[in-house]
Request: fold
Amino acid sequence: MAKKGLRSRLSRYGDEEFALFLRRGFLKGAGYTDDALERPIVGVLSTASDFNPCHKTAPQVAEAVAKGVRLAGGLPFIFPTISLHEAFAGPSSLLLRNLMAMDVEEMVDNLPLDAVVLIGGCDKTIPAELMGAISADMPAIVVNVGSMLAGRHEGTRLGACTDCRRLWAAYRAGSLDGPELDRAHDQLMPTSGTCMVMGTASTMACLAETLGFMLPGTATAPAVSSDRARFSEAVGTHAVTMAKTGGPKPSELMTKASLRNASVVLQAISGSTNALVHLAAIAGRAGIKYDLDELDRVGREVPTLLDLKPAGMNFMEDFHAAGGLPALWRRLKDHLDLSAKLVNGETIGDVIKRWPAYVDEKVIRPLDNPVVKGAAIAILSGNLAPQGAAIKIAAATPDLFQHEGPAVVFDSLDDLEARIDDPNLNVTPQSVMVLRNAGPIGAPGMPEAGALPIPKKLGSKGLKDMVRISDARMSGTAFGTVVLHISPEAAAGGPLALVRDGDMISLDVKGRRLELKVDEAELAKRKAQWKAPAKPARGYARLYVDTVTQAEQGCDFDFLVEAE
Ligand code: FES
Reply:
């Protein structure tokens, strides 16, 4: 039988009893009693970091979890891991997600703990934690730090970062002056917590709860609410049960059925397209291929029901007050696999039956009155994206769903920054703006640069949207007719690398096609002249570009993906 508590994962000296003697001695030195050291151990993985302001309350969450562990007779150990914030990791926090996942896996796999509580929130943290915990297959439960409260500015409710983008675009276009931008800036992130719109953090919290890794109803509570504190304590208490029983393990929760449920919820919340990359990576750690075609099919049946920015008008605090995620599950019950298991031993069907009947229909809409009819996210293919591409239809402009226009190509992010506002840029509202070498290998780390800014010369005339395509990602808080995740990416020699200024590109959202109107002989000629970009010389960046998989496979390292 596997050893538990302090007896597990001993340092190897060739004498197990000595190793335990030493370990206990150090803990006695830290003030622990013999009684405490016999209890089940719950690791509390904290992502507190001054470089992660979204996780400002992570220490309070960790303390509340630890309180719950102690109340249930367990012994909590709070320990740190890499923490990632979207605005503090250049060129992209995705570059470091796999490093964090490795850190989580190795710490969870090598420390003497019987279960682990994963404190996550800001975009990449929950995906990295789930990837690591699944690979370690340690009983794990997620508690998120919770979202910010909505801001208020001169009669308008503001949300990070949908309104950050809206206000910045207005400032760029000259319709908002500096002083007003400054006043609104103070209210965009009015409390600690994660972005309070349906960005990637909110999306991944909802999906982690749907996959079964959170206590039902906990994903949506604001960071500064008493619900957040009580839920955290309850998570600690439940983690002791998991430590004692040894389950459920992540491998029991991650199934094709729970993944399909995640796709249903992703469409219904009009979640972030980043979830496609993260779900593929999380599934890959369990040896399951995330089925993007299934996501597309699900989208044809499940409309957007959740009225949250950017697809709607409300914020996470409204979702929580409207009934929370289980109230949305109830709306979706004919589309979900109700037998999917959750971390607390219930099924989704059990939770739907016991959840309070109250629902605010303005926020969690009924199926016959959706926020957006049809799919929120669609998967495209075509000669420009042989392995696929994604578009968030719910954030795009219907008039551009069927569009053909000449390419304006930016060869890299540096090129984009240098030329986007050049008055001589040959661009019109009909152009298709192309950004390449911004993918997993090309950037590296596939930054959220896919929503290319509207060139000033067009924005200043009132143009709000145009077709933009790239091998980059896009923030879940962004909007526009933006085709993302084109695969294979340009730096891997995909057709995107061969596009030239003036080539005609056609987007057909209904037909799910993205085509480059250049004949095959010409493309073969261009391919023969193509040279792969130089790789970083050393270090983590070199490991990254040598082993990262493409977007549809999750951008994980190939050597960390479990065989199917
Ligand atoms: Fe942390 Fe948005 S930047 S959740």
